[in-house]
Each structure stands twice: as C-alpha cells, then as structure tokens.
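Journal club prep — side note

Before the paper discussion, L.F. wants everyone to see what a predicted structure for a comparable chain looks like in token form. Sequence:
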Amino acid sequence: MNAENKSRVSKKDQILTLYASGIREVADLALITHSRPTYVAGVLEGGKMLPGYFDLYTSSSKSMNVYSKYFAGKLGFKDEETARHSVELIDHYYRQFETGQDRAGQHHALLMALTMFDRARWTGKEKEAAIFGEWLAKHLEIGSPGSEASTTASAAQ
C-alpha cells in the first residue's frame, strides 16, 4: 500500500467528522463531500445520528408516522406477483382510511404506492412499476368541476 492510499479518507469518515464538527445539514454535508443526500443520511442514520430522516431510499420498515406500521416490511416489487400483492395491501388500507375519512392515512397509502413505483422503475422493473403506476393513476384522477372529487378538494381548502 502506498502513502497515497494510506492517507485517503473515505466519504463516510469525512461525513462523520464534519457532522462531529458541527455541520448538521444533510444537504451541506452532501455538497462538501460530493455525495448524494441519501448516502449522507444513510451514513448518519447508521451512526444513530439522524433519526427522522426520510427519502425515497429510506427503509420503509423505519416508522415515519402512525401509518407506517400498516406497510412496514409488507411491500415489495421483486416480481409482478409481489407488486400486485403490495398494491392490494395499499388499496385495502386506502379504502379503510377513506371509510374513516382519514385523509392523512389515505395520503400515506398514496405515498407508499408512489415510493414503490419510483423504486421499481429506477431499478429497471418496468412491469412491476406499471402495477403501482396504474393504481396511482386511478387514485390521483382529479374530477371535473362539481364532481365528488373536486367538491371534496374544495371543502378541504
């Protein structure tokens, strides 16, 4: 091993050192270390320094709110069957939250579907992504003026 390799500091070590020195913002740490914010968050999360950070690649088994427990460890996209089962679960809870007029619960179900859609498509699982995408498209339709969907949206404002 030459002297250059011995003195080379890993990005992980840079992030941890900068964090310890008082730089706490994920975006700042990412910029300084030429890393992606998700990587920075993962390093800090692994060191138990960043609880409560969530993005596309944060594990869905980590509790984000009271609704997380319904989906934690139960969603996937390894194949089309797994994606369909995941959409069935998302749809089940979405309808359950709708029955209870729990808009925050419905929002979380939509968020879980969008997260799985993005994870699938950005890992090249187009067919699996399409399963989540079709469900999302159906549930994100905005009604015409005077329809139930637009009336509900207007009432919420």
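L.F.'s comment for the group: Confidence is low (pLDDT under 50) at residues 153-157. Keep this in mind when we get to the figures.
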